[in-house]
Structures are given as structure tokens and as C-alpha cells.
Design brief:
Layout (H helix, E strand, L loop, with lengths): L4 H13 L3 H16 L2 H4 L3 E3 L11 H9 L3 E9 L5 E8 L5 E3 L5 E3 L14 E4 L3 E3 L4 E2 L5 H6 L7 E5 L5 E2 L13 E3 L4 E2 L1
Parallel strand pairs: 1-2, 1-6, 6-9, 7-10, 9-11
Antiparallel strand pairs: 2-3, 4-5, 7-8, 11-12
Length: about 190
């Protein structure tokens, strides 16, 4: 039986929210260690990450690690478009102090410190999500920001999602615009 995206999204968010602060911290540390050991991460010069939100895999230490490893560290930000919608762009940062609450309360590069980065120049994009499956399909919050952005990256860019095991489902419905991940990194494994 195939469940709808909305049903899976609701179930996954409930499961993720049920994790305690300590569980999120421990599992995030395990995911960070697994990510740091990946060849795809080691060989990447330009790495885009996200600022965690609502019990997502914590990324503060990962952002610090990228900066300390000498990688150009990139974070997304949301802006209003001329058509009245919203779109996601990317900016390089040098420290966590360059972030402030932005759209939806998610931390993003301060407008005064933004250094635009083309999606085509990225070596690796570390992606959040609500749910994933064994085929590396991703279910986001439903706005399509990451799917639109990832569609603009070059072929060799590694798309790596971070997730807790509770976010892995047997199957996720895939739409025509949904971008599949190259890998999903959890506290227990790397799904490739």
C-alpha cells in the first residue's frame, strides 16, 4: 500500500519531533562522523549545508567542521521573487556569526554578508528533508525549494541528505520535479 506524501510527511515529522534533545545530539554526532569519513566530503572544496530547524539533524558542528577543514562553506537563503513567490539561493559564509533568522525562522546568511554562489560551482550539497526511502527519494516540507535548487547543480555535484533512521520509509511517492539524492547519511548507515 502506497501512502500519500502528506501522510508520510505528517508521520515523519511526528516521529522526528518525538526524539529527545539528547537523542538528536547523539545521533547528529554519529551522522557528522559518518559524513566526515566519506570520500565525497573529503574531496569537495565547495560544500553547501543547511542550518537545522525543528529537530532536524543538527548541523552547527558540521558547519564549523567545513570551515575548519578549509572548505568554502555555503548556506542557503530565501528571497522574494519579482513574481511574488520565493526562491532559494546560496551564499558563502566564514563563520556562524554571519547567520541570522530568516524565512520561516531558519538561520541563513545575513543580507549584508551574502556572497552569491552559483549552484553550478558546488561540489557537494548536504540536504535536509522530512522523509526518505531506500531508493534515496526525498520528501521535503512541500515548498520545492531544494528540488528547484538541486536541479541547477552540475552532474558531478554530490547530493547527500542527512536523516535519522526514524525518517527512512519503505517507499516515498516521487513526483516529476523531485530530485533523488546520491546518498542518505543516517546515524547507522549510508544509503547509496
Amino acid at each position: 500500500m502506497e501512502y500519500s506524501k502528506e501522510h508520510i510527511r505528517k508521520t515523519a515529522l511526528k516521529l522526528r519531533q518525538s526524539l529527545t534533545r539528547e537523542q538528536v545530539s547523539l545521533k547528529s554526532e554519529a551522522i557528522l562522523n559518518r559524513l566526515a569519513g566519506l570520500e565525497e566530503y573529503k574531496k569537495s572544496s565547495l560544500v553547501m549545508l543547511y542550518a537545522d530547524f525543528r529537530n532536524e539533524v543538527a548541523t552547527g558542528d558540521m558547519i564549523r567542521m567545513c570551515i575548519e577543514d578549509g572548505k568554502r562553506t555555503i548556506l542557503p537563503y530565501i528571497v522574494r521573487t519579482d513574481e511574488g513567490g520565493r526562491a532559494m539561493y546560496a551564499s558563502q559564509i566564514a563563520s556562524l556569526e554571519e547567520l541570522c533568522p530568516g524565512a520561516y525562522g531558519i538561520y541563513e546568511p545575513k543580507e549584508s554578508a551574502r556572497i552569491a554562489v552559483s549552484p553550478l560551482s558546488l561540489d557537494m550539497v548536504i540536504v535536509p528533508g522530512v522523509a526518505f526511502d531506500e531508493r534515496r527519494n526525498r520528501l521535503g516540507y512541500g515548498a520545492g525549494f531544494y528540488d528547484c535548487f538541486l536541479a541547477q547543480t552540475r552532474g558531478g555535484c554530490c547530493k547527500a541528505a542527512l536523516a535519522f533512521e526514524v525518517q527512512i520509509f519503505p517507499s516515498i511517492p516521487k513526483g516529476v520535479h523531485d530530485v533523488c539524492m546520491d546518498m542518505v547519511v543516517t546515524e547507522d548507515r549510508v544509503i547509496t
